[in-house]
Amino acid sequence: MTSFKFVIADKGKCYQIEKSQNECEAIIGLKIGSKFDGSIIGLNGYKLEIRGGTDKDGFPMRPDIEGIRKKRILIAKSIGFRGKKKIKKKSVKIKGFRKRKTVRGNTIGRHIVQINCKIVKYGEKPIEDILKKQ
Fold it and tell me: What is the pLDDT of residue 134?
């Protein structure tokens, strides 16, 4: 059974929650930038925003590509590419360097493994207390 790994960012700290895809049916079909209720993953009272993610092969999601498909695009330094090249075992920045890379679309499907989230609205209990009980 495949599962989602939720990486939740909170003011410089990150927390990881793992849930099966069957428990999180409501998240499938949401896009980057969408907000969802935290009770889906066990964080009652919290509201989370999807910021990105990766698929089972490690390809990052990009907000500017529609759908759930993989696509090879020519990109400069941005999401999915750092804009550096190794020259004599050193990583060097090259101005204007572009590369064709494979990336994933902005919609969550069954192929996504990691979902990066940000807390938008806090619940009554601190997130540390909720995660210790699980």
Answer: 65
The predicted-structure confidence for 25-74, as pLDDT tens digits, reads as follows 999 999 999 999 999 998 999 999 999 999 999 999 999 999 999 999 99
Domain ranges of the chain: 3-133
**Three-class SS of the chain:** CCEEEEEEEECCEEEEEEEECCCCHHHCCCECCCEEEHHHHCCCCCEEEEEEEEECCCCEECCCCCCCCEEEEEECCECCECCEEEECCEEEECCCCCEEEEEECCECCCCEEEEEEEEEECCCCCHHHHHHHC
CA distance linking residue 87 with residue 11, whole number of Å: 36
